[in-house]
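Hi everyone,

Forwarding the result from last night's run.
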Amino acid sequence: MTKLALGLVTAACVLAIAALVFAFNNPEVAGSVDPGRTGPTYQCLAPWDTVLNKADNFPGGEPPSDGEAIAARCRAAGRASFHRAVACWVASGVLLLTGLGVALKRGHTAQIHKGP
C-alpha cells in the first residue's frame, strides 16, 4: 500500500471515530439564555436518539420553569451534532473508497510493469 493510500485510509478512520463521538456524545446546554446570569447546565440526550427517535429532551427531576426552552436548545444541539456526525461518516466513506482505489490502482500498475 502506498503512502498516499495509507494516509487516506488513516484519515478515513479518524473521521469515522469523530463521527461516533459526534453521534454518541451527549451535548450540554445552559439553563439560562440571559447573558448576565449563569445557571445550571443540562445534559441532553444523545444526538442519535434526538434525531432518529425524536426524543423530547425535557430536563429530568423537578421541572424547571423554562423546561421547554431547554428542551428546544437540546434538540437543536443534538441535531447539529448529528449533522456533523453524518458529514464525518460521508467524508470517511469517500476517503476510504479513494484510498482503497489508489491502493488497487497502484498495485495493478506495479504488476503490469513487472510483467508475468
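Helices lie at 3-24, 47-52, 67-114.

Cheers,
N.
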